[in-house]
Amino acid sequence: MPNAANFLNDICRNAVNRRLLERLADLELNDTWLVAGCLFQTVWNLRSARPPASGIRDYDIFYFDDSDLSWDAENEHIGRVQRDFRDLGAQVELKNQARVHLWYGERFGPGYPQLRNSRDGIDRFLSACTRVGVRANAPNDLELYAPDGLDDLYNGILRPNPLNDRPDLFLAKAESYKERWPWLEIRPAK
Question: Range of 13's domain?
Answer without folding.
Answer: 4-186
